[in-house]
């Protein structure tokens, strides 16, 4: 049956003004579109980590799993290997995936695992009331750093490009049309798609004014150029006068992790045929 109500009746406990609402809307809207064009929502799986973002598993009416902290990606890769027909989406937090789960993120990019990773990058641990994360701004004052952080944040796009990601994008929760478009393109990309989303945390790190002043949309940008993408990713060096590009930085078509795993030994077995064989064996 198409036209499933994608919002569950679970009580929503996100704070008013939280950017998670935008991501929920973007996912709901894009999945509704994909369903209209023939994707069965029964073939979609949502994996979340631990944090405010993770409640997406409660609020979206999809097959879903709350993984443990920082472990969305190994759970997602396991699901994809068990049934390569599924479309697997990870919603993860910045503290969740750039701290605890960073090694998994790098390996997923390096492998070109055919999953979509959406990072709710509010640059703070929101659920635990405001500790700094790897992307918190220099000088961020929170529960664990009352005097302000003394560290520069990491640049996730630069890291993902260097790790071999084949789809690298940045969105912003206050730019809905662009966010929808990036989520849709990410879901349609065959291979590892990574979308870092600047998400407003209305309660512990509201950077709306800063972002409004500094973001701009990528235009006339060659998404096939690695060097150009790298330069654009490095443009935001976390100085206060930085320009922050939004959009799709880089996309490339490459064999996926699943292609390679199921094609083993690669010389003489057609990967799709092998996937079919394995699925038959499992039935
Ligand atoms: Fe959203 Fe921040 Fe509230 Fe968490 S603490 S629900 S991220 S506004
Ligand atoms: Mg966070």
How would you sum up this structure, described in words?
With 283 residues, the chain is α/β, with parallel strands linked by helices. It has an 8-stranded mixed β-sheet with strand order 2-1-3-4-6-5-8-7, sandwiched between helices. It has helices spanning 20-36, 56-59, 72-82, 94-100, 102-111, 156-163, 176-188, 208-214, 226-235, 257-262, 271-282, and strands at residues 44-48, 63-66, 87-93, 116-121, 167-172, 193-198, 215-217, 244-251. It has one domain (20-282): 3-Layer(aba) Sandwich (Rossmann fold), CATH 3.40.50.970. The structure holds iron/sulfur cluster and magnesium ion. The site of iron/sulfur cluster has 12 residues, from loops.
Key features of this structure:
single chain, binds iron/sulfur cluster, 283 residues, binds magnesium ion, alpha/beta, eight-stranded mixed β-sheet, 16% strand, Rossmann fold
